[in-house]
Structures are given as C-alpha cells and as structure tokens.
Amino acid sequence: MIGANGAGKTNLLEGVHVATQGFSPRTRSEARLIRFGSDATRAIARSHARATEVETSVTVHRLGPKEVVLNGAPAPLDDLRTKLPVLVFLPDRLAVVKGGPAIRRTYFDRMLGRVSPELAELPGSYAKALSQRGAALRRVRDGLAERASIEPWTETVAGLGADLDAARTAVTDELGPHFRDASEQLGLRGARADYEPSAITRGALEDRLTRDIERGTTGMGPHLRDIRLATDEGDLRGFGSQGQQRVAVLALLLAEASCLRDRDRPAALLLDDVLSVLDRDRRAALVSLLAGATQTLVTATDADDVLEAGCVVEVVQGAARIA
Ligand SMILES: Nc1ncnc2c1ncn2[C@@H]1O[C@H](COP(=O)(O)OP(=O)(O)OP(=O)(O)O)[C@@H](O)[C@H]1O
Ligand SMILES: [Mg+2]
C-alpha cells in the first residue's frame, strides 16, 4: 500500500484492524476513529482467502456500545480475535518491549488466545477470580466476613493461576525458537522470551493469607509476573536501542505468525511503515521472511519499496485504489 504522508495509509490499515479485531491498534479513545463531525464509523471486511467466506462489520458509535457482526449475526468482540488472527506492527508502538510488565502480560495473554483459542478465556477468568478474591479479602479485613469465606476463591485463583502459568510457559516455549530465528535474520542475535512461572498453589496462597488480608489483594500469581525479552547482551527493555527494540517488536510478531502457521491457523499481517524503520539488509531479510508466508499488508511512501508486492494499492487523499 503506497501513498504520500497523510494520504490515509495508516487509516486504512487501522480500518482493517478494526473490522477484523474489533478495536483500534493505535488509540484507546475510540471516538478518534470517527470522522470529525460524524456520529459513528463502520469498518467492514470480507475475506475469500479460505474455503469459508468470512464477513465482519464493526460499528463504533460516539455514544453507546460497539456493534460487532460476524457472518450476519451479532457476535462478542472476542470471537473476532480468535476466529480471524491478524497481527499488526506500528512503528511507534514499542511498549511491549519498552514498557512495564503489565503491557507484556496483556500482549502475551492476547497471543495465547490467538495461538490457543481454547485458552482465550483463561486470562479473563483468572482476572475475574482474582478480583473476587480481592473483594473477599477486603471484606474479611473490614470485619464484614469470616476468613473461611475466602477459601473458595483461594482454590479458584490457585487453579486458574496455575493454568495461566502453564499456558504462558507453553506459549513462550513455542514462540522462543521462532523469535530467535526472526530476530537473528533481522540482525538481532540471541533473542529470547522467557517466562518464569509464579508457582502459585493453594498452599502457597494459604501461607500468605494474613498478609493478603492486610493488603486486600492477592500478593502472588501470574498477574505479578513478567515475560522477559532479552538478547545475549541483556534485557531489551533496558539496553536495546530504538532500532533493536523495533526489530524485537517485529520479530515477536513474525514469530507468532510462524506459531499460527504451524498450527494451520495462518494470520494476516498488517505492517505499517515497516520498511522505513529497517536498514537495507534488514529490508531484504524481511522480504524473504514474508515470502510464501501469509497475507501481508505493508504500507510505504515509496513505490520502489514494495516492488515484491503481489498487489499494489495506491492511497490518495483518503481514497484507495488498486494500482
Ligand atoms: N477522525 C478523523 N477524521 C478525519 N480525518 C482524520 C481523522 N483522524 C485522522 N485524520 C486525518 O487522516 C489523514 C491520514 O492520516 P494517516 O495517518 O492514515 O496517513 P498516512 O498515509 O499513514 O501518512 P504517513 O505516511 O505520514 O504515515 C491525516 O491527515 C489525519 O489528519
Ligand atoms: Mg502512516
């Protein structure tokens, strides 16, 4: 996809993401998706890529909830993510590498849902049980309930927490070799994604019950763990240059795409301005990494950059046409 600065390339990419994933990859404030002066926006996507046709429509209103329609029927937002894996790269989004642990947990938990759809609800179920246990802990602290009232939540949190630890370990193990390979081809050696499980058990939670009651929160579990992204030189979060951090973000995405391909659930890739952030050799490496991969949408300002593309879309003043 080519076009001048401000032509609307990122907008179009964002539209594809909204239609297929149900939310914007670049803003939390959904009102910003809506054209200045309008009340709503709708993104529609049709796919004929596989034997089964898929059509989605996502409507965002300035006021009121979002509407998601999948193949003609209203659907929950999460259905989109598990049914239509789409991975997006935005050059200014380095938070997964640079940001705090919470961002990485969210990122990897979403990945978990795409790679293993049967586990898509696990992170949410754990978070819900955790908040219910927190409420129970605070009721006991405030003298409104007996200690025994916490027990069922301790059991649930321990069970779901151990499941989430295991799932994160499995997904990082599966991702690891692909992450290393993709990083290496893009010039970053020895890249790793390591998860150290929290070792949550019912017994461990019971041992710290008094402290948890005092604090009113559960003080151990996967909600407090990090996924460490590093190379032989150290933590990417601390030492990585901007360029290395971008490569790591891109390599994570390519690694996940490989995991999905291995599982016969190929993802579409949306890569915004990816060529401008790579030097010449790495561009060539990326092109070969993408060759024969899945469907990929790449934006660029310069037509020369996308010579290998199967189809070139030109974007001029917000309108797109096949060149
Ligand atoms: N809610 C909105 N309503 C109307 N126009 C908007 C809205 N949000 C952004 N725009 C405009 O859309 C235009 C296209 O922006 P976009 O980021 O898609 O361009 P681009 O082709 O990706 O440019 P670049 O090459 O600089 O990244 C911008 O001029 C921006 O001001
Ligand atoms: Mg752009």
Low-confidence stretches: none
* Mean of all residue-level pLDDT scores: 92
What fold name stands as the CATH topology of the largest domain? Glutathione S-transferase Yfyf (Class Pi), Chain A, domain 2
Distance between the termini: 9 Å
Beta-strand content estimate? 15-25%
Number of strands: 12
Ions, cofactors and other ligands present here are: adenosine-5'-triphosphate, magnesium ion
CATH superfamily of the largest domain: RecF/RecN/SMC, N-terminal domain
Using the alpha-carbon principal axes, give the shape. globular
Spell the H/E element sequence: HEEEEHEHHHHEHHEEHHEHEEE
Question: How many domains make up the coordinates?
Answer: 2
Helix- and strand-based class?
A: alpha+beta
Share in helix: 40-55%
Radius of gyration: 22 Å
CATH architecture of the largest domain: Up-down Bundle
Summarize the biggest pleated sheet: 4 strands, antiparallel
> Strands of the biggest beta sheet: in what spatial order?
1-2-3-4
CATH class of the largest domain: Mainly Alpha
Give the count of helical stretches: 11
